[in-house]
């Protein structure tokens, strides 16, 4: 195929040219070798139909393979996500088994040293704090019940005694004074319990001081003696030194 003059000059300048002809040919021309006497030029051509057939086959291949690749990618993604979420599902199941009445359970670690394992550690630490808090509340409730039952019982007993029959003014005054004393004791107990509850256990430092045991026993005896009178129980305190 003859080469046009304007194309020949470009080829000599070491340019590779592509062009189409009117008879459906695509041509490539380039300079292969150049000497003082000769210039070797390579020219190749192909019909458009060959390239079109190749493009058609490529399109058909892509049309067929695209849904298959998409389907396989979807399946692989589902399997990957399912496998990745297995630890999360295990955590959810363990959390559902934990109840407020039993916070001693913990979530088993997966020992993977990743974000999920760190989440489990954090959640277990939170459960430990909640368990400690619930125990403190339970202990506080028990202490409140124990500390309040005695003065309330005494106050109730004094009032019931006063209402059994008509009494003189000084007798009513004595009953009211006793009720007032127990009310102050009750208020003091509540204040002490609230004071203790307002502090964290780590903030309370242990301290020891000397005291007389006989004074403590006497104080307890006098307190319980008031309660025993309301229940027709006689309490007595024996001085060991005098009995000997």
Mean pLDDT equals 76
Helix content estimate: 55-70%
Beta-strand percent range: 5-15%
Number of helices: 7
Strand order of the largest sheet: 1-2-3
| Main pleated sheet | 3 strands, antiparallel
Number of beta strands: 3
Shape: rod-shaped
Terminal Cα span: 144 Å
Radius of gyration: 49 Å
**Order of helices and strands, N to C?**
HEEEHHHHHH
Structural class: mainly alpha
Descriptive account of the structure:
The protein has 244 residues and is mainly alpha-helical. It has a domain at 5-81. It is 64% helix and 9% strand. The protein has seven helices and three strands, in the order αβββαααααα. It has helices at 5-12, 48-84, 86-96, 115-163, 169-197, 213-230, 240-243, and strands at residues 17-20, 25-34, 39-47. Strands 1-2-3 form a three-stranded antiparallel sheet. α4 packs antiparallel against α5 and α4 (115-163) crosses α6. The protein is rod-shaped and about 145 Å long. The mean pLDDT is 76.
């Amino acid at each position: 195929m003859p080469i046009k003059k304007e194309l020949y000059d470009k080829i000599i300048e070491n340019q590779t040219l592509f062009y189409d002809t009117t008879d459906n040919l695509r041509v490539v021309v380039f300079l292969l070798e150049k000497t003082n006497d000769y210039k070797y030029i390579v020219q190749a051509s192909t019909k458009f139909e060959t390239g079109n057939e190749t493009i058609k086959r490529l399109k058909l291949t892509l049309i067929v393979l695209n849904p298959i690749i998409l389907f396989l990618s979807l399946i692989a993604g589902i399997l990957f996500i399912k496998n990745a979420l297995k630890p999360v599902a295990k955590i959810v199941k363990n959390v559902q088994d934990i109840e407020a009445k039993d916070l001693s359970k913990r979530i088993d670690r997966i020992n993977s040293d990743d974000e999920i394992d760190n989440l489990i550690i954090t959640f277990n630490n939170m459960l430990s704090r909640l368990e400690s808090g619930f125990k403190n509340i339970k202990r506080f409730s028990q202490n409140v019940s124990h500390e309040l039952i005695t003065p309330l019982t005494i106050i109730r007993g004094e009032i019931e005694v006063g209402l059994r029959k008509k009494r003189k003014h000084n007798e009513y005054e004595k009953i009211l004074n006793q009720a007032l004393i127990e009310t102050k004791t009750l208020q003091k107990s509540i204040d002490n319990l609230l004071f203790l509850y307002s502090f964290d256990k780590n903030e309370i430092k242990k301290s020891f001081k000397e005291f007389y045991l006989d004074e403590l026993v006497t104080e307890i005896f006098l307190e319980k003696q008031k309660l025993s009178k309301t229940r027709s129980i006689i309490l007595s305190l024996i001085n060991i030194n005098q009995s000997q």
